[in-house]
Write a structure and sequence with these properties.
- The protein is mainly alpha-helical and about 60 residues long.
- It has a single domain (about 10-60), classed as 434 Repressor (Amino-terminal Domain).
- It has helices at about 10-20, 25-30, 35-40, 50-60.
Length: about 60
């Protein structure tokens, strides 16, 4: 039986949940791909400084 993934509390996940955005919608706003955001949220990619700075206005 496959294990369930732990819920993500990453900043990307919180912003997406708060604004009810898809990866594609948030990626369009941030100027990055949906795949990159998904990777950041799941932990397979690192949050870049540029993406972090672009997320700050949404996280306040």
């Amino acid at each position: 039986m496959p294990r369930r993934a732990a819920p993500s509390f990453h900043l990307v996940a919180r912003v997406r949940a708060w604004f009810s955005l898809t990866y594609a919608e948030l990626g369009l706003y941030l100027g990055v791909s949906a795949t990159l955001l998904q990777g950041i949220e799941t932990g397979s990619r690192r949050l870049t400084p540029a993406v972090a700075m672009a997320l700050l206005p949404l996280a306040r």
